[in-house]
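Retro notes, structure queue

What went well: the backlog is down to a handful. What didn't: a couple of records were mislabeled last round, so from now on we paste the full input next to the output in the thread. Example, using alpha-1,2-Mannosidase from Zonotrichia albicollis:
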Amino acid sequence: MYSPVSAGTAGWQWLCPSAAGSRPGRCLGSLPPTAAPAPPAPSLPRAQNPAITEAGTALPAQAVSNLNINDVLGNYSLTLIDALDTLAVMGNSSEFQKAVKLVIDTVSFDKDSTVQVFEATIRVLGSLLSAHIIITDTKQPFGDMSIKDYDNELLHLAHDLAVRLLPAFENTKTGIPYPRVNLKKGVPPDSHNETCTAGAGSLLVEFGILSRLLGDSTFEWVARRAVKALWSLRSNNTGLLGNVVNIQTGHWVGKQSGLGAGSDSFYEYLLKSYILFGEKEDLDMFNSAYQNIQNHLRRGREACNEGEGDPPLYVNVNMYTGQLMNTWIDSLQAFFPGLQVLIGDVEDAICLHAFYYAIWKRYGALPERYNWQLQAPDVPFYPLRPELVESTYLLYQATKNPFYLHVGMDILQSLEKYTKAKCGYATLHHVVDKTKEDRMESFFLSETCKYLYLLFDEENPVHRSGNKFMFTTEGHVVSVDERFRSSLWEDILPAGEHSLKAKPSEPKAANFSSNCNRVPDERRYLLPLKSNYMRQIDRMVGLI
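Corresponding output:
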């Protein structure tokens, strides 16, 4: 049993017994067998942003084949594909067109390669769809990104990949997909029956877009069936979901409920599916999930910027009892402030973001897993993840507070100082000694660099074109328009599996603790979090 310690010293007042956690990763269950004035905003011209400038360079033709092949990379030019829309967002039409032609000429999914369904969907399928939408957009908001004689080749590639992923949804008693599939042979005979909530339940945005572009309900249907199957397995007591489930029995193998690895994008896609498709049931599920998260995962004082007590923090709990399971958070949880911004819960987002930024300030990176009781990393590597940058970008868009530009500058300078290597940017093997690994994840280009670039580019078409855009969980840009809010197949869904279409409107989450109107304009040039609360968080992570 841990002993309580006060917020003013080293820990949290609501400590409970700890339970061992699982090895961190994007998908846990699918492992292979406001008081002080803020300083003025920094100026960051595009030409002086070296990380982003290097990220905007398309891969040469000789770099098409991956050397380090595994079930994430898939041996299908992952980084090249994942970075396509980043080039478009940066306005680099020549490199975008060159990269698209390279994909069309060289990429094939007809490979004896076993891949993660989730990673292939968000990194590859999502990027192909995003680039196709950009190419075929008659408004061309990012400049001339058209491809001469383009004949929907990227859409055909996306369709081909999705068809090869479909066997994962077959022969499961719950409708929840297998975590892995061989692109030529289907589900491997020795495949595990366990998958994580995020991996199985975060396919709807990409599969739904594909279905609506093709006029074929198959892809959206299987993805939506998986979401509903997971949703039906939530606890009757708390309304929470676990993080690892058996796809045949529906039994929860991992009973941890949290916002990080194994769970994160499930909640994200409930909201984003509603934003994109307008299906009311998606918003209803999100509202219910968000309320249950507030009731059972949130600890600390009720308000972010007022009152007494510990800073708000979302912890890992048992899905059935709501009791604390461990005393760590992982870096993927840093996405949650950005999601809170999307629903207007800006005040709570400010507080949670400040906690992750304090950890960054201490180490110059976010450790994959951080133990907030021990004030030390449990898992010390940093694979260039984007989640803190994403939340920083969205908070700046919501508040226009230059504090978040300073956060972005701090992150950028840390990346330049600690992760830059001869041929790119390297994963940090250990955030304390800053040793590196010979690996740069594709999401560094598709997300981390993109969000940093957009943070400082006020005039980017994403912000100024008049179009509405949404980012997928992999950071791919998708236009929010009417064609994705209409489908032809509601009448073929099984009875009870479709709901009324919501009118295009601003999504509103039920019962959140505060809203955008509680961040008045006069606070724009003050610290977003009062200085005494900021110091409290700094003490919590050992900065002071």
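Agreed that this is the format going forward. Reviewer comment attached to the example: Residues 230 and 332 are 21 Å apart (CA to CA).
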